[in-house]
Write a structure and sequence with these properties.
single chain; 8-stranded mixed beta sheet; globular; 10 helices; 8 strands; alpha/beta
């Protein structure tokens, strides 16, 4: 098991920290001494998660704040709140996401839900927090991708899947490829401009969390498990949330993690196992597409790079 080094004195923001990998990251970061901002859409669920973590780690410094990544006004309000506090953000962990709702749904701003929540919301949050992040001594921005990014495509002709036939997992794959491209592009910008910034990405392999059920149950009266139920679950290796969170924690805290790194499980087809560095798929390394995607994200969110010239 990866041992998180001491994080005393650090402020770490973890989105989606009321459950799954986000909650586990908040738990272990809090246990290591960080002041963790648990950024969640539903504060009551965040407070419940906080209470459960404090039962195990009574000295953990945890703070629940509301953010809805499917609403750019909420993202801005959250960023403005942290900015008003004035404390540098040592690590931003873009963990929250939604996976494969059965029918096309939209965000408060009219974006396809997965592209908006998984990519545009974290993109806007990162850029708005960047001045606070850059004020920290050794800042990091860590973004959660997914193994399905390997078959993702960026559909510039229809990013919101308004004309394409909605296919839940292909939409999810697009959003997770976008996350990975964003992380690699941010790392490249940091290097090119000699910024004191580390950007890296992670994926959890096949980790058993409510991600597989929550998205698939949106718009349904009854919860539904989306993938690998019954016999299928026995055929495909999976892992609990503790090891599944380790690539994210490694990227966020390891002294050996590198700018532009991508971390995931090392076992069977990248589904399970100890953390290793992963080679991003070729599409994620397409710099022209990444630059175009960044520009489109700036246009859609009306948020631009606050440090140096626009990308």
């Amino acid at each position: 098991m990866y041992s998180v080094p001491g994080q005393a004195g650090k402020l770490i923001v973890v989105t989606g920290s009321n459950s799954g990998t986000g909650k586990e990251a908040a738990r272990r970061l809090g246990a290591a001494g960080a002041h963790v901002v648990m950024a969640v859409r539903t504060p009551a669920k965040g407070e419940q998660a906080k209470a459960e973590i404090l039962e195990q780690h009574p000295d953990a410094q945890l703070e629940v704040r509301r953010i809805d990544l499917a609403d750019l006004a909420s993202v801005r309000e959250f960023a403005e709140g942290l900015t008003a506090d004035g404390r540098p953000v040592d690590v931003l962990i873009n963990n929250a996401g939604v996976m494969a709702p059965p029918a096309r749904m939209t965000t408060a701003d009219g974006f396809e839900l997965q592209f908006g929540s998984n990519f545009l919301g974290p993109f806007a949050l990162t850029l708005q927090l960047l001045p606070l992040i850059m004020a920290a001594p050794s800042p990091r921005v860590i973004t959660m991708s997914s193994g399905v990014a390997n078959y993702g495509r960026i559909h510039f002709n229809d990013l919101q899947w308004e004309r394409l036939r909605y296919r839940p997992m292909f939409c999810y794959a697009q959003s997770k490829l976008a996350d990975l491209m964003f992380s690699l592009r941010l790392a490249s910008i940091g290097s090119d401009r000699d910024l004191n910034l580390m950007a890296a990405a992670a994926h959890p392999g096949f980790t058993r969390t409510n991600l597989q059920t929550a998205g698939a149950s949106l718009g349904r009266d009854q919860p539904k498990r989306m993938i690998f139920n019954g016999a299928g679950a026995r055929l495909v290796p999976s892992q609990p949330v503790e090891p599944g969170t380790e690539p994210l924690l490694y990227a966020a805290t390891s002294p050996d993690a590198v700018n532009g790194g991508y971390y995931g499980p090392s076992g069977f087809f990248g589904l399970v196992g100890p953390t290793t560095i992963v080679k991003p798929p070729g599409r994620a390394r397409d710099t022209a597409t990444a630059s175009r995607l960044w520009a489109e994200a700036e246009r859609l969110t009306d948020v631009t790079m606050p440090i140096g010239n626009r990308v």
